[in-house]
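#dry-run=false #mode=assembly
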Amino acid sequence: MKPAPLHFVRASSYDDVWRAFAESGGDAKVIAGGQSLVALLNLRLATPGTVVDVSGIDDLRHMSVSPSEIRIGAMVAQWTVEHDPEIQQILPVLSRAVSHIGHPQIRSRGTVGGNVAHADPSSELPALMVVMEATMEVLGPSGLRRVPAADFFLGPYTTALDDDEILVHIVIGREAIERRYGFHEIARCRGAFAMTGAVGSMKRGPESLRLALFGVASAPVQIDLGSLDVMSAWPTEEFDRLLSGHFAEMLAPNDDFQATADQRRSYAVVCTKKVLHELLG
Amino acid sequence: MNFSAETDMHLDVEVTVNGVRVRRSIDARMLLIDFLRVELGLTGTHNGCSYGVCGACSVLVDGVPARSCLALAVQLDGATIETIESVSQTQRGSEILETFSRCRGLQCGFCTPGIVMSLVELDRRSPSPSPDEIEDTIDGHLCRCTGYVAIKRAAHEILGDVEP
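#status=ok
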């Protein structure tokens, strides 16, 4: 048996969760789809005394999709979002970004909320949430808080969730649904963790551009191309040179077995350009 | 703070496996793959990497393919599980197995049960899957000896698509 001994709580209400948290003395971990957590349990990189299963809480399993708002309960599977015909129609970038997470056999159980709360620095969804200016609804024993995505991702595997809080819904507003998106990532192979990626959106002209990078820092990095004063050089080689110069100053990614810091900075330029080509033609 | 619980906790789990309802009291930390292989003796499902990468342990949970190494069995109370042992029980399943074999989609056979379960699901879901869908499904599986050319040929033959 690979995981260390653990207590398992099947929560069927939020009160069950708060009780399990309190009884665990700060040693509890929430399990949603478990596609990151169970791997960590198997490797014993995580040995929580208590695992709290929130799949029995109905409120977390609901998703509603309309042109004015998309609300995704934290237990909704990535697979469900990826294949939802309405999402594919009104916010295709969401299905597209989700399709880069692992493999179909992972996305079938992995959840959007779990991915977001796990906050892997190489993950697609945190950066997309920041660009969409999505709202993270987090609930704890003292009530509900609405945290903007830009304030939610604090570092590697670290979010604004307090120890006694859980992510309950992700809310994407009309403004985000009405924007156009570009997305590009570079990975060693399909299904592998991204080395670097970019997601961008635009409402009308280039002045409405929003861009975020992932895989280049401990959390998504928002890039304000307007303030960098590079767009006047788009789409020339001068643009590449200027942007490379800015990224050399702004970005200090990790060196690891997949890519060096220099590679990642150069991939950030490539991904940004791919996103801009998609948005600006 | 990370302190594992000092003692194992037992919980009841009731699942339907290949059409048979089973109920067991098991350790909370038991993985689905160990539940199938050790508790139920269904050793057709193979345990490869144990962290979700290789795909050998894939089974169907409530009709969708999932890694049985990335689920605690106690998470699946009430679920319906299908393993490789169920495939030959239907005519379509037998056809899939025969085609896979005829196309030399397997050599040592270690990765095969997982791949077949993924193909069974895609075959049910999509009457004529695109080459991209087939690619995406096979991508979720590592093979270290047969080679993907034969596996993909088998998949395209099963799913009624001519490989481009």
